[in-house]
Amino acid sequence: MAAGFKLSRVSLRADGSLDVSGTAAAVPDSRPAGFLLVGRQSGQERRYPAAVVTGPAGPVEISCVIPLADLPYPAEDLVDLYFVSGPDRLRVGWQQVLQWLPYPTKFGNLSFKRKGA
Amino acid sequence: MAADQGPMLPAGRYFMVLWGISESFGGMTTMSLHRAGAFRQHGGRTAAVLTFESKPSYETLLERLRSQGKIDPAVEVLNIFQYYRSAASDGGAPDGGSVPAPVPADAGTTGVPEVVFDPEGRVFMRTLMRPDGETMALRVYYRQDGTEYFRDESPVDAAGRTLGRYLTLLDRAGRPVRRWRKAGDFYRHWLLELTAAEQTVLVVDSAVAAGVVGPLQAEHLLKLVVVHNSHIAAGGDPFQGKLAGTRKGIFEGSWAWDGLVFLTRRQQADYEQRFGAANNLFTVSNPKARTAALPPFEARHPNRGVMAARLEPQKNLAEAVAIMALVSRRLPDAVLDIYGTGSQREALQEMIDDAGLAGVVRLRGHAPNAAAEFETARFSLLTSRFEGQPLALMESLGRGCPPVAYNIRYGPDDVVENGRNGFLVAAGDQEAAADRVVRLCTDDQLARSLGQAAWVSSGRFSDAAVTAQWARVVEQAWLQAPERLAVPGLDFTLAELSFEADGGFRILGDLTWQPGSGPPAEQYLEANLVIGRRTSGPPEFLSAQVVQRQPGGLRISAGADGGQLGYAVSMDNHELDIFLQVHGRNVLRTFRIGFPGPAPSWRPYATIHGSLSLKHA
């Protein structure tokens, strides 16, 4: 099983990069941890290495910067994000049940939709 | 104005500003002209009316208006083109500057000139249009002696590409005296020349003219703009509706005004609840004359009601017909006379006939003095969908005729105290409205007491009372003027948007403006994150943190946790929209929050299961 990744924050910056950060209980040394983007329709994958900071005890801190301008998905509208550690991949998501889901409007503005609406 | 006191209005020159005055104008122009007279008669200050339309003369129109009492005989109307037609412009470049650069030659084709003559039959203006019939190529204005005094040129090159606009003032020898590249700059030049650095108050009524006056920044000018109708398009919901397009520029650039003047307190309150408060928001009622004394109750026909309304969809007159159908069942002698004309006349008459109410609801057409009809009526009705401030309601009160009004935005609840000087019922509640009409028709004591209270309450919007309100606003605005913040080019750029583990989010961004005259705005501006509810209810304001202040800029951080985001959101709201509100003194501006970085691009997106995806938007 992949080490459980807990999302702390996902940030979009003016330079067009996406910064994903969180924690995991442990990360196996056999294969570097990273994040995988998968095109919803094409299944095309691209992997980005994560920075892992291991402290003396407790969970490890994990972060990854994804340059969005470089994503190779010209025909896609949606891309899913996975955390990869060892042989497994784990869908990245919020750890608690969200009541309001963020989304970009058709004019490119930030709105939230009520879950289930 | 009392004889032993000084002028009620603070010292200075006063101008009412309109774009133009059409032959058959509506309520806004009526009020503007009337206010100019009231300022002279009750405020002790002469006020003139300013216009910008291309019109050779107002002579005939003013003669008619003066004979009808619609404008004070002492009130002057000054028009920019009439002004420069008579002005001496013989002195070369007035600023001592060089002669303006030449206008590029026009390589386009034009049609036959259209000519406008002045009342004496002399040419006032010649216009050459492009072959499309819509684009103006050249307009030349002529003095009474036939010499050109102004040219408005829009040349194109051989490929038809525009070479810009050139507006030129000429001396009698045809030499250019001054040239502008934007019409607004020409109009503002006139305002500065006219006011000649004297302390001046500009009261702007027209939204188009507000576009001219708004950018004008001068210490000797006080700029007040009147919000004549609902600030929401088509009278929509005050919290969710879009800003009325015609006045959107005023609201978005409200910092540039010394005062935004609403007509009713409720409208100002709605505006503040949605957008926030600022020190340049005021309320001043329109004035409306009332009878010198309460008309005798005995002259009122016991079962007669009156409406004065344009027969247009906004007035919602089908509701009045439906109410009278209910009234008629209980009171067969009741009648409603509707004065006014409009596009719905035939449809309404058909509705009345189909309902068998031909003798009950009577469309009386236009009456020059329809307001006098309220003196012999027992009740009046108001069923509009929306209003700025319904003048018919004020006329009814001012003649002691108690109204039964739908409690719409805006106006009724500002002047009607339910059960004291009339009745307010929920919009669309025909049964309740019919019940109040029947009570007024059948209960003499009630009708008499409400009628008297109606007339007494109308003293609040007499010319004298309203001019006194204006005096207080002008005085307050002059006091605040030196402290007014100037933030031209105010804009917000998002640097970072973060979604947090608890379902909340944070933004970090930069508020920027061009620092210039006035106090350092960076010391006084603050911000709020605004959670707007898409379907109903006022927005939620959460304080933002200013993390850095410098001339011309603030760095702002704001956020909401998962709980704050959905706090007290009613279940009919399925979407929340995010804004940043900036406020401080006279500054009040709301920015829609988007996503940082280039667009379109990939945006974080929560799937229905709470997983993180990226969406291209």
TrEMBL record, chain A:
Its protein name is: Uncharacterized protein
Organism of derivation: Arthrobacter hankyongi
Automatic annotation (TrEMBL), chain B:
- The EC number(s) attached to this protein equal 2.4.-.-
The enzyme's first-digit EC class, named in words, is transferase
Occurrences of domain Glycosyl transferase family (ranges): 306-454
Kindly list the GO molecular function terms attached to this UniProt entry. Answer: glycosyltransferase activity
Does the keyword Glycosyltransferase feature in the UniProt annotation?
yes
Task: Report the InterPro entries cross-referenced here.
Answer: Glyco_trans_1
Highest rank taxon of the organism: Bacteria
The family database entries (Pfam families) matched by this protein are listed as: Glycos_transf_1 (PF00534)
Q: Which UniProt keywords apply?
A: Glycosyltransferase, Transferase
Q: What is this protein called?
A: Glycosyltransferase
